[in-house]
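Structure first, sequence second, as always.
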């Protein structure tokens, strides 16, 4: 026989408590009926219609007591594979608790009543506007001759006054460090590109100079050939036909 887990004991205790509450309600209702009969100082003989109504109420009460139990047992038997048995049992017990249901319903009604949703996270509007005004004042206080301070630095300075151990500051420091590394990498990449462009320009210039020198030499050669052809033609025309 497998050992009984503590979570199973909790779920059984919860269901037993629900059953006890239902039985106590039925017992209290029956006691009220008896008191009402005694107060009439006469034998109470309910008619058929009232008896049917009482029986219907009894069945409804029994169903209300059995319904949470059946739903809880069904939920316990359908445990998702990615959660432990103890955690799932705890969740089912919480979801079946009447007080928790009332709280959930109240929260739902409150959410539905919201007209302007907050977009500042867990920070209140007053705190948000206070920090925003402080950042605007720091930005306006910069002199024209000064080197402009980044928005990240202004935010870090304002938040530092609020909390010396802010997690925002630590994450902001990581972002600044990452931004610095990225800027350094970008500068190095730009230097490499610039150097490659200079080498390409030098290569193009060298090739152009070689092409110009070859064209000049080719032109000189063509001029020399034209001169030699002209000399040969002139000599052939100056000689007599009989020679």
């Amino acid at each position: 026989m497998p050992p009984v887990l503590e979570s199973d004991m909790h779920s059984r205790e919860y269901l037993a408590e629900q059953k006890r509450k239902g039985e106590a309600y039925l017992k209290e209702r029956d006691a009220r009926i008896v008191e009402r009969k005694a107060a009439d100082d006469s034998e109470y003989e309910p008619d058929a219609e009232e008896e049917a109504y009482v029986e219907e109420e009894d069945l409804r009460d029994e169903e209300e007591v059995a319904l949470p139990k059946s739903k809880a047992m069904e939920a316990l038997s359908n445990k998702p594979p990615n959660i432990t048995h103890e955690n799932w049992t705890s969740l089912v017990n919480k979801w079946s608790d009447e007080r928790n249901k009332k709280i959930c319903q109240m929260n739902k009604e409150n959410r539905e009543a919201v007209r302007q949703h907050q977009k500042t996270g867990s920070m209140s509007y007053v705190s948000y506007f206070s920090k925003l005004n402080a950042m605007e004042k720091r930005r306006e206080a910069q002199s024209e001759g000064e080197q402009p301070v980044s928005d990240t630095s202004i935010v870090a300075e304002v938040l530092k006054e609020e909390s010396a151990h802010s997690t925002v500051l630590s994450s902001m420091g990581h972002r600044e460090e990452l931004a610095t590394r990225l800027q350094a990498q970008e500068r190095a990449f730009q230097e490499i590109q610039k150097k490659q462009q200079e080498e390409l320009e030098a290569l193009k210039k060298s090739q152009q100079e070689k092409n110009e020198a070859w064209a000049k030499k080719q032109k000189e050669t063509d001029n020399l050939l034209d001169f030699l052809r002209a000399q040969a033609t002139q000599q052939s025309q100056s000689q007599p036909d009989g020679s």
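Margin note: Residues 127-140+150-203 form one domain.
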